[in-house]
Amino acid sequence: LKWKDVSIEDEYTAINKTQTYANKGHELTSVKSFNSHRDIYNLPEFTRLLDEIKATSKHTHPNDFILCHKDGRPFTVHYISLFFKRIVERHDMKIIRFHDLRHTGAIMLKVKGVSLYDISRRLGHSDYGFTANTYLNISLEEQKIALGGIHLLDH
Q1: How far apart are CA 109 and CA 153, in angstroms?
Q2: Packing angle between helix 100-111 and helix 116-123, nearest 10 degrees?
Q3: What is the phi/psi pair of residue 14, to 5°?
Q4: How does DSSP assign the chain, residue by residue?
Q5: How far apart are alpha carbons 147 and 25 in whole angstroms?
Q6: What is the pLDDT of residues 109-147, one digit of tens each?
Q7: Could you count the other beta carbons within 10 Å of the beta carbon of residue 78?
Q8: Residue 90 and which of 31, 62, 79, 154 are 20 to 30 A apart at CA?
Q9: Residue pair 100/40 in contact by the 8 Å Cβ criterion
């Protein structure tokens, strides 16, 4: 994600690239489908976090990556996943993968009454049946974990 993809003033983030790993290493490519291109609303907490990052980062040019090493290289998906795992372990939380936060977010939106169509669009899916079967078909334990953070959506 680059600074040019985020509008703090208009409270949205444009999703238009994905990081892939190929023979030459990590590279940015276009998202995989038309529906994957999307603008998503930024929660106030996310906007505050972006403000904090921008205030402390040397890399704030529109073409700079938001999450990057000191030399400006973007964090890889693997790096972010490992960092997240360390945080979870350090705080003695239930172990989940970083990607599981997508599932949790979808569940939280559904509980708050957001339509399946809108959840599917936010996740970049073209088929809301896929969203329902993959992201919202969960166990009671997974529901309990997801609903533990539901207060984050109350403003």
Answers
A1: 8
A2: 150
A3: -90, 120
A4: -BGGGEETTTTEEEE-EEEEEETTEEEEEE-SSGGG-EEEEPPHHHHHHHHHHHHH-S--STTSBSSB-TTSPBPPHHHHHHHHHHHHHHTTPPP--TTHHHHHHHHHHHHTT--HHHHHHHHT-S-HHHHHHHHS---HHHHHHHHTTGGGG--
A5: 37
A6: 888 888 999 999 889 888 888 888 888 877 777 667 666
A7: 12
A8: 154
A9: no
Per-residue pLDDT tens over the stretch 48-62: 999 999 999 999 898
Q: Which amino acid is at 56?
A: T
Tokens representing residue 66 in the block: 């938001």
d(C-alpha 135, C-alpha 43), whole Å: 20
